[in-house]
Specification:
915 residues; Rossmann fold; 25 helices; 22% strand
Length: 915
């Protein structure tokens, strides 16, 4: 058998595409992301030994298959992505496979025949600097997450997490909500005039008797007037409108100006995510998933990039298409070059563009791509081509109209217009905006021809009231934009970060807006008070600069990590906090963290001056008014965003009937029976807990058809006696019982059970009826009578499968027949859109299949040693030698991502992978 060169890429889809281009002399296989990882527990970082990392083999089967293929190979090409993660994957493959054939590092930015063949010819060695930077990033994130997350567990609640990018991103969302909570609305009025011209237009009153009228921008966040402008109230506005009826309007001034508008640069990762959110209504994670598929199948260039540069090949392709599709007048004399990079740009990749020496138009690929992929490809093609087109040119017009009221008051009105004289790049692409009220660049406002002194007919005058609005919550698009502006993290990590803060329950969506939970407030309060550097935007941005210096070899890893973890030792042997973060010292000194304080969000005081506080408790957020034995408490409904929890709303919740009441005395036990409102619905309780005696009262949930407002003691006494003995099966003498369970009402005989149709059957079923039910075939969960969907949304634009909302055991969920995704906090069945349904389904698919419960644990096999890389030194780099950490046993295989994209955050818990 003739030997072949072995090429290793990350994903099977990429392998299939590349093998097609390389031909019979090459065998292309996939590593399916990283083949080794830090252990899920313990830390995996030897802080006393130069922060050496211990790795576990996560894909022994993949490594075995690669080793088998390598035996018949004459060369090895490591073709992982050309960034820090890709370089680390290549380095780990090299250490695991230990090849005895020539090794080549093969890099490319697009998957086309020409690019792949060129990459084979222009291969290089492993970039040790990139590997060091990746491991430094991973180590710091691991220390951050594993050291800080337990603090959150102890002081706030379980299953919380902190992370280098996650926490600053969450801080942005919380700070915006705090701005909204502090905001106080102001009211103002204006007057508009409708002019019966051709075309008709509307002007707005801007000044009265020479004094400018106030608009929203003249009020501060507390609703106070912040300028000399005069606010109009309703009475004055209506009086002015009445006083101007029938009065002549004349043009007092007319100003025309030419304007030019230049195209935006081609997409980088962050701008693609932003526009995907604005124009396609996709989450950042959905955009990256679609882009990954387009890249791996050879439709676009590499989608993780901070560079706006286009290659000479791309410039030529774009200019050729502009001339062919739009005409020579749209083609600049010289190509446009966008050399400015985003803050902390990482790799010198190209911008994201259609792949190849010539671009395929959207029409040419329409039948090859699914709906979502096609729309994203079209967006990338439009942005790339538009970036090389001529400026748009137009004319803006500002007109001032004057009139006098019947009682002689002078009124000045204004109107503006815009005419596009030459559309230029707007023929191909118009950038979206985060402001829903903002006009897009291609929208014209045509005013009639007019000159100074012309009379303007007026057909309608009307006053209108307005209120100032709080700052808008972040959407995924605007959050990505802000993170990039601050230099926090890398754009390639933003999608996973936004997904993480939602999955952790820190953030939920209201429409497209990101709303923080009260738990998020507690987390950020604790971090800001006790770990301020860890959520400081400048600290996180500086770290990205440091990683770039490590990659270039101008910064050594070990001293850098030492400053972060231990601080710089002063002359007295202690840590100098001014010269380093000293994380170890910070997490060791937790005595001054008041758990009650960090879990409290002051809302204000009621009319009697009694303070009201929102608190994060064990069973969710709640309100508390006053303190001590006289305090009042009430749960905060899940659907209330923090900024809507005003003092007035809080008082309503505190004073609303709680539903808790005494129903009477149990005739057998003599204990008082209470009706209570629980987190999972109303229930009854027989007696009270007694910590001294250990007495635990019996409880039982009300049936769904029971009304808590009218239920009586006699109604609930049978519930407290459940499970109920129905009778004995005469065939074998086994007792049959009826009871309510997690999945609804059922009867049970020994270990066998059958579901009941209604809860009332629990109390009324006879032994004869029970025997009939037990004789029926057992049905799996959810195999009862099919319920009609709660809402039909229509066909999936990609697969054409119908998407519907159904009612499940754990609440409503959306499904396309293959994937089920529960609705999240803030999602309402009636208001659910197709875009939101597609986002929920995509997020569910991205998390992979539901994990089945593990059976009995088997004895672990003998473990296999996996290498650990000690931080780089100049001597190590020269020799290429790698130190190994203490021997590790064979790792348990873990689920792998389809590519190497990982979060820039530390682990949510020590049971996670650390990314």
């Amino acid at each position: 058998m003739a030997s072949k060169s072995l090429v290793i890429v990350e994903s099977p889809a990429k392998a299939k595409t590349i093998e097609k281009y390389l031909g019979a002399d090459f065998k292309v296989m996939a590593s399916v992301g990283h083949v080794v990882d830090l252990p899920s527990s313990p830390l995996g970082v030897d802080v006393a030994n130069a922060f050496a990392l211990t790795y576990e083999v996560t894909k022994p089967k993949v490594i075995a298959e690669l080793k088998a293929a390598l035996k018949n190979a004459d060369a090895l090409y490591l073709a992982t992505d050309e960034d820090r993660e890709g370089e680390a994957i290549a380095w780990h493959l090299l250490n695991q496979l230990k090849p005895k054939v020539p090794v080549h590092r093969m890099v490319f930015h697009e998957i086309t025949r020409k690019a792949i063949l060129a990459a084979v010819e222009q291969s290089r060695g492993i970039d040790e600097g990139l590997v060091d930077a990746q491991e430094a990033r991973r180590t710091l994130d691991r220390l951050y997450g594993y050291e800080v997350s337990p603090v959150l567990w102890r002081k706030i609640g379980p299953r919380l997490s902190a992370g280098r990018v996650q926490s600053p991103a969450l801080r942005l969302i919380v700070e915006r909500e705090l701005e909204r909570m502090r905001f106080r609305s102001a009211s103002y009025w204006d007057v508009s005039a409708r002019h019966a011209t051709s075309p008709a237009f509307t002007s707005t009153l801007t000044a009265v008797d020479g004094r400018r009228l106030a608009t929203g921008k003249d009020f501060d966040a507390q609703g106070a007037l912040s300028s000399e402008a005069r606010p109009l109230d309703e009475a004055t506005a209506r009086a002015l409108a009445t006083g101007l009826e029938g009065r002549p309007f004349k043009v007092r001034s007319l100003e025309k100006k030419g304007y030019r508008s230049s195209p935006k640069p081609p997409f980088i990762t962050s701008t693609m995510q932003q526009e995907g959110g604005r124009k396609l209504r996709l989450s950042a994670q959905q955009v990256m998933r679609l882009a990954q598929g387009l890249y791996e199948r050879g439709y676009i260039t590499y989608m993780r990039t901070d560079s706006t540069t286009l290659s000479a090949t791309a410039l030529s392709a774009a200019r050729t298409q502009i001339g062919e599709l739009f005409g020579k007048e749209y083609l600049p004399a010289q190509p446009r070059h966008y050399v400015k990079k985003a803050k902390n740009a990482q790799e010198a990749h190209e911008a994201i563009r259609p792949a190849g020496d010539s671009f395929r138009t959207p029409d040419q690929v329409r039948n090859e791509l699914g709906g979502g992929e096609f729309r994203l490809y079209e967006l990338i093609w439009q942005r790339t081509v538009a970036s090389q087109m001529n400026d748009a040119r137009g004319e803006s017009v500002q007109v001032r109209l004057g009139a006098s009221t019947h009682d002689g008051r002078d009124a000045l009105f204004a109107a503006s217009g815009r005419t596009i004289l030459f559309p230029g790049f707007l023929r191909a692409y118009v950038e979206g905006t985060d402001d829903p009220d903002a006009a897009l660049d291609d929208q014209e406002r045509i005013l009639p021809e007019m000159a100074e002194g012309d009379a303007m007919a007026t057909e309608e005058l009307a006053g209108a009231g307005h209120e100032t609005q709080p700052p808008a919550r972040f959407t995924e698009a605007s959050l990505v934009k802000r993170l990039e502006e601050l230099g926090v993290g890398r754009p390639s990590t933003y999608a996973s970060i936004i997904s993480t803060v939602q999955d952790r329950g820190y953030v939920w969506k209201k429409g497209s807006a990101l709303v923080p939970s009260f738990t998020a407030f507690a987390v950020i309060t604790l971090l800001e008070q006790h770990f301020p550097d860890l959520v400081d935007y400048a600290f996180t941005a500086r770290m990205e600069d440091d990683l770039d210096e490590i990659a270039s070899g101008s910064e050594d890893v070990e001293p850098w990590l030492t400053r972060f973890y231990f601080g710089v030792q002063n002359g007295n042997g202690g840590a100098d906090h001014t010269s380093g973060l000293a994380l170890k010292t910070l997490v060791s000194d937790l005595g001054d963290i008041d758990a009650r304080e960090v879990n409290s969000i002051p809302l204000g005081a009621d009319s009697d001056g009694v303070p009201i506080v929102a608190r994060v408790g064990r069973y969710g957020p709640y309100l508390e008014r006053g303190s001590g034995d006289d305090s009042q408490r009430a749960s905060i409904p899940d659907e209330i965003p923090p900024d809507e929890l005003t003092v007035e709303r809080a008082v309503e919740l505190l004073e609303a009937p709680s539903g808790d009441r005494e129903l009477g005395t149990h005739p057998s036990s003599g204990e008082t029976v209470y009706l209570k409102a629980g987190r999972f619905g109303p229930y009854v309780q027989e007696g009270l807990h007694d910590d001294e005696t250990g007495f635990k009262p019996r409880t039982a949930s009300l049936f769904r058809d029971m009304d808590p407002a009218t239920v009586t003691l006699d109604d609930v006494l049978p519930l407290l006696e459940l499970p109920r003995e129905v009778g004995v099966d005469p065939a074998d003498g086994v007792v049959i019982t009826a009871q309510n369970g997690r999945y609804g009402p059922y009867i049970k005989k020994g270990s066998d059970s059958r579901s009941l149709e209604t809860e009332q059957q629990i109390l009324s079923l006879t032994i004869e009826q029970a025997l009939v039910v037990m004789a029926q075939p057992k049905r799996g969960r959810g195999q009862g009578a099919a319920k009609p969907p709660l809402k039909e949304l229509g066909p999936d634009p990609d697969t054409e499968r119908p998407i519907v909302v159904k009612d499940g055991r754990f609440g409503p969920y959306v499904t396309d027949g293959e994937t089920n995704a529960s609705l999240r906090k803030g999602d309402d069945v009636e208001d659910l859109t197709m875009e939101r349904a597609l986002e929920l389904l995509a997020d569910r698919r991205a998390r992979g299949p539901v994990k089945k419960k593990a059976g009995a644990k088997k004895k672990a096999p003998a473990k296999k040693k996996a290498g650990a890389k000690k931080k780089a030194t100049a001597a190590k780099k020269k020799a290429g030698a790698k130190k190994k950490a203490p021997a590790k046993k064979k790792a348990t295989a873990k689920k792998a991502a389809a590519d190497h994209a990982v979060s820039a955050d530390g682990p949510p818990t020590p049971a996670s992978s650390g990314d």
